[in-house]
Structures are given as C-alpha cells and as structure tokens.
C-alpha cells in the first residue's frame, strides 16, 4: 500500500510542501502520496486522529498548528522541545514523535548552499517568534562568536534568550534585546526572522548592522527583493538570499527522517526560486 503523508495548516492552499515532497519522492523512487489538509481551527487533534486512522505515516505542520503538534506528540526531540513547536510528526504505532527542522534547514541553506560559515561569526537574528525559537539551537551548534536576538517587543527577546541560557546556552555567546541595543555593532550574518517582509515592512534595523562581506538572509520566500534585502544591498552586502532554500532543506530533513533517504535539494530550490530583483 502507498504510504501517506500530508501537510496540515490553516490556510493551506498556498503550501509548496506537496510539490516539494512529490518531487523528492519521484527523484528518490519512493512510493508515497503527499496531500494537504486544511485543519479546522481548534480541531487539530481530531484532524490528525482521522489522518492516522486512514493510514497516515507522517505530517508536516505549519501555521497555526506548530504548538498543537507539540502538545499532540508523545515524544519530543530536543529541538522541538527547545522551540516549543514542531513542524514535523512521525507516527510509529501508538507513539507520535515531534521534530522541528526549520532551524536545521536554515543552517544547512546558509552553510552548505550559500557557503557562508557561521563558526566564529557574529550573527544577528531579527524577531522573537516561532522561527527564531527554532533557529537558536541549530545556530549555536555551529559555534558562532555571538548570536544576538533583536525584537520589536524587547521583553519577548529577553525572556526567550533567558530561557535558552537557563537551559545551558552560553551568556558569552547568546544575548538579546531591542533594535536600539544594536548600537553601531556590525554582524557577519543578519537573518530576518520577522514576518515584516510579508507586508513589505522593514524592521527598524540600522544599515550599520550589516557587514558588507557577510550575508543578509530573509526567511520569507517568493517575494523577490524585500525591503530588508534592499537595505542590505544599500549597505554594500553582496550576498543576499531569501528563505526558499530553508523551506526546501527543512522538507529534505523531514523526508529523510520519514523515509531514510536523503533527497537532492538543488533542483527543487532552482524550481521554486523567485529571482531577487
Ligand atoms: P511569528 O508570528 O511567530 O513572529 C513574528 C515576529 O516578527 C515577531 O517577533 C514580531 O515582533 C516580528 N515582526 C512582525 N512585524 C514586524 C515589523 N513590522 N517590524 C519588526 N518586527 C516585526 O512568525 P514566525 O516566527 O513563525 O515566522 C517569521 C517569518 O519567517 C514569517 O514571515 C515566515 O513566513 C518565515 N518562515 C519561513 C520559513 C521557511 O522555511 N523559509 C519557515 C518558518 C517561518 P513582535 O514580537 O514585536 O510582534
């Protein structure tokens, strides 16, 4: 019988996950079906129960169900626990394992696809929502010299950073605050993990934060050159990227976790890339 997988979210019509996973399956000669489920708001558990009862083997989880997915799981990976959110579930009999691959997908795109090492670098993460929460541990695992989390609502960044520190993150490396706290500090890698680019807004970031020889990365994808990436270019940054590679790489992590086969990501990234103009 064909193994069944799906992505669950609300809304879900826009999701690229079926295209990505079907492409991976074809390329890796894996017999599987991958669909979309519009989960009813407040009805995540019921929708997942029904999918499992119909033979579902795993799910990708997107907005607004990433917290529900953690609550539903019987086993949380360290990354899912640290993020307090899951973007992938695997069903193994009565067990439901939760994972969060957003951060590893981001790091793989930056270090592998874009060739920008994070080791020993000064990294700035903008935003203190779910995407930042998932990115902190995978970035720290790369051994950066510094990781600063800046957020509009300052208290949110500070409490997130304190939580990671209480769980062992080094206070010498990880710090957080508001945009005003950035001063004239310069960062090798600046990652926009706010949702500002979705509405063509710009976080209140000084242009002096960019190191021209570094990388500016916007997690939002498919929007072309966002105001954040434009600001980076105006500041002289030559290497700019959006989050399409992160999207495809987190999907590849989930695919490998479910199927034991690592798919090739380059073709899919090329297919989904919207030129940054
Ligand atoms: P959340 O809603 O959890 O967090 C949004 C964050 O953006 C908050 O910290 C918020 O600040 C900040 N923010 C929103 N608007 C502005 C603004 N105008 N100026 C400054 N800060 C702003 O979202 P997520 O963390 O889940 O996602 C963030 C982005 O990352 C989304 O755009 C999403 O599309 C993208 N993403 C991409 C992925 C990929 O695979 N490429 C995967 C996951 C996410 P405050 O706390 O002050 O409200």
Q: Which tags fit this structure?
A:
alpha/beta, 277 residues, 6-stranded parallel β-sheet, binds NADPH dihydro-nicotinamide-adenine-dinucleotide phosphate
What does it look like?
It is globular and about 60 Å long. The termini are far apart. It is built from ten helices and twelve strands. It is 36% helix and 23% strand. The strands form two sheets. Strands 2-1-3-5-6-4 form a six-stranded mixed β-sheet, sandwiched between helices. The chain is of the alpha/beta class and 277 residues long.
Brief sketch in words of this structure:
This protein has 277 residues and is α/β, with parallel strands linked by helices. The protein has ten helices and twelve strands.
Oligomeric status: single chain
The biggest beta sheet, please? 6 strands, mixed
Hetero groups bound?
NADPH dihydro-nicotinamide-adenine-dinucleotide phosphate
What best-fitting shape do the alpha-carbon axes yield?
globular
How many DSSP-defined strands? Answer: 12
Helix-strand sequence? EHEHEHEHEEHEHEHEEEHEHH
Average pLDDT score: 97
| Class of secondary structure makeup | alpha/beta
Strand content: 15-25%
Percent of residues in helices: 25-40%
Strand order of the largest sheet: 2-1-3-5-6-4
Uncertain parts: none
Distance between the termini: 45 Å
* Count of DSSP-assigned helices: 10
C-alpha Rg, in Å? Answer: 19 Å
Task: Summarize the helices and strands and which ones pair or pack.
Layout: E1 3-9, H1 17-27, E2 32-38, H2 44-53, E3 56-61, H3 66-72, E4 75-76, H4 78-83, E5 88-92, E6 95-99, H5 102-113, E7 122-126, H6 130-140, E8 146-150, H7 154-166, E9 174-177, E10 187-192, E11 210-218, H8 227-234, E12 239-242, H9 244-259, H10 266-272
Parallel strand pairs: 1-2, 1-3, 4-6, 7-8, 7-10, 8-9, 10-11, 11-12
Antiparallel strand pairs: 3-5, 5-6
Helix pairs in contact: 1-9, 5-6, 5-9
The chain binds NADPH dihydro-nicotinamide-adenine-dinucleotide phosphate.
NADPH dihydro-nicotinamide-adenine-dinucleotide phosphate binds at residues 102, 127-132, 151-153, 156, 193-196, 198, 201, 203, 219-221, 243, 246-247, 250.
């Amino acid at each position: 019988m064909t193994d069944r997988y799906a992505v669950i979210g609300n809304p879900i019509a826009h999701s690229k996950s079926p295209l990505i996973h079907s492409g991976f399956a074809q390329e890796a000669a894996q017999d599987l079906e991958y669909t979309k489920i519009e989960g009813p708001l407040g009805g995540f558990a019921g929708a997942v129960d029904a999918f499992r009862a119909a033979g579902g083997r795993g799910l990708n989880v997107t907005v607004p169900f990433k917290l529900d997915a953690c609550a539903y799981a019987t086993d949380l990976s360290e990354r899912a626990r640290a993020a307090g959110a899951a973007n992938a579930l695997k069903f193994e009999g009565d067990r439901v394992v939760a994972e969060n691959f957003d951060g590893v997908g981001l790091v793989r795109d930056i270090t592998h696809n874009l060739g920008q090492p994070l080791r020993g670098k000064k990294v700035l993460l903008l935003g203190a929502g779910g995407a930042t929460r998932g990115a902190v541990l995978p970035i720290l695992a790369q051994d950066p010299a510094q990781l600063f989390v800046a957020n509009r609502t300052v208290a949110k960044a500070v409490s997130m950073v304190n939580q990671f520190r209480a769980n062992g993150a080094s206070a010498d490396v990880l710090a957080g605050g508001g945009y005003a706290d950035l001063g004239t500090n310069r960062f090798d890698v600046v990652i926009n993990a706010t949702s500002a680019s979705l509405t063509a807004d710009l976080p209140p970031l000084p242009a002096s934060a960019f190191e021209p020889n570094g990388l500016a990365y916007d997690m939002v994808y498919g929007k072309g050159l966002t105001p954040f990436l434009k600001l980076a270019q105006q500041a002289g940054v030559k290497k700019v990227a959006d989050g399409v590679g992160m999207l495809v790489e987190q999907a590849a992590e989930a695919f490998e976790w479910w199927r034991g086969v690592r798919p090739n990501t380059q073709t899919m990234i090329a297919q989904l890339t919207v030129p940054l103009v």
